[in-house]
């Protein structure tokens, strides 16, 4: 998207910034981000780090000041040159063939004419774009960025939510309140696509017998176009304009129509755009209706159902992200009939047969229609997101292949990874540029590269990490001060924010959705011991927490409230901080600043988990239950396991099946007996040598294996060929 008016209104030397703001490339290139921020850091925070809003609202005197600052102008030139060079290798760009990318060298099958079509209901690319709720979206965002870096021809399809996911506020009673705010799409780096007559390019989807119009917006994620579908168009009835209002906001009847728009609308959008994909990647089952649309396309040309099912399955691959039932949508057959009635008989005259495609047992008419069975059946391959999760899926969905034994299940595993350039702190990025080489991010999956981390002196690595911890502490204080001031608290209280946390204290981060299986309550299970641990006279510990409860999950909200009340206890003042509004910004601050990242799921419900992978390049260490990715990651030297070989009988007072109590005990034991002593064991320069050794071990073993570079290459090798 390019805003000519904004461009013309800026001082000439600043105009290249408008072009940069139109492509989200800047969001994973530290120098791009700081170019916008440095125009006016305070305003940058106020406008939620949205470059277009910043440029539109910045004070003219400030702009004219920057417009003649030679250092600043040189930074613009350097960054814009890097951006232009990056974009020259975009698949399909004239003369881009001569520019080497990983995909061009290793993956000639997919071309700009036949790209991969990647479907997902959410995308977490940057905090200024409210298109994500949590892990799934962040993973999809990281996937696009890595695919862009690797030069993979991929187009992404999603939904454009007018009000996004809910924002979180915690009231004085510690109770979570939700609010939504309207997006102004003109303030986002989006272009509404138009046809030859300059009308919005629109496709139609069938919903409850109506033809609902869907318009298409385009965002640029580096070299990857992201097409976002939106039903808020003039021609639609009011009720249909709200279909794409909220991400995961409504009940089953809202969900199903959103999924119709994503799946059926997505395929029709690709056709309208003239894109013929080489393969379709269904990232989670929300988009699985796309397979029905592809069957319908074939059936209407006279192909029979079985043949078209086989042919569609050859073109699709499916990734499932959670074994938790709430993450695997099912709809009553009656609801599917109500929403898609006539359409189903277009797919195949006998609608019951179509419904059977979404059931574990196709002939069981009482079984609801599941998006996961549909996606599995209509894909040539399906995968879980860690080795353990792959095994869990094989058992969970075994009924779909009644004749195949579990150990021969077609389910495979491709373990998640994170896009390091997005999550690494600029200070660490500098160190890597210097010691690993300027192109380290392109080779982030190479274990040999990360061995060079040994060349960074202990003191230098430690100092960088300490500065990041101090940054997190400063951020927590600043946020508390702002919140308390806004709430009308006394000056004394507001100034108290400056005593929150301590930049020299062992800092443990815990940020995740407040859901039962994530076990926030383990933190509170032995309050007295926790208080003693946090207030240890010579080796104290502090916690920084963040997370959202689902708006309709009152149990989760009660857990959050207990925690809020607990942290207000006199003995804990300043040792436990909760950062409200967990989003990508809060996540970056946290994963960049903590010493230890905690994860406490009930196995095997954490399919992978990705937040722990983000701390690695920032020098943070993982302390986790052995579940999801950590089973593959942990080697005993690069972090800590909780609850693993816990010797229950030796503890006497425990009942063997009381897993929560056992894990809580283990959690305290590991922190008090292993983590804490190692952190505070310093040499004469104040460096904890043993700790730094673990930081290195963590970077060397985990950074390459859990990079999105490795993940996307795996998808390309296994799936996209
Ligand atoms: C990384 C991330 C997540 C996913 O973290 P999990 O480890 O899966 O809990 C969720 N929300 C945000 C904002 C993130 O950055």
- The tally of beta strands, per DSSP, is 20
The profile of the biggest β sheet is: 10 strands, mixed
Q: Give the DSSP E fraction (strand runs of 2 or more residues).
A: 5-15%
The Cα radius of gyration reads 26 Å
- Distinct compounds present: pyridoxal-5'-phosphate
Overall morphology: globular
- Contiguous runs where pLDDT drops below 50 for at least 5 residues: 646-656
Quote the distance from N terminus to C terminus.
31 Å
Oligomer: single chain
Alpha-beta classification: alpha/beta
Number of helices: 31
Average pLDDT over all residues: 94
Helical content, roughly?
40-55%
Structure report:
The chain has 721 residues and is of the alpha/beta class. 44% of the residues lie in helices and 13% in strands. The two termini are 31 Å apart. The strands form four sheets. Strands 1, 2, 5, 6, 7, 8, 9, 10, 13 and 14 form a ten-stranded mixed β-sheet that branches. It has a six-stranded parallel β-sheet with strand order 17-16-15-18-19-20, sandwiched between helices.
What's this, in brief?
The protein is of the alpha/beta class. It contains 31 helices and 20 strands. A hairpin with a 2-residue loop joins strand 6 and strand 7.
List keywords for this structure.
binds pyridoxal-5'-phosphate; 13% strand; 31 helices; alpha/beta; 10-stranded mixed β-sheet; 6-stranded parallel β-sheet; 721 residues
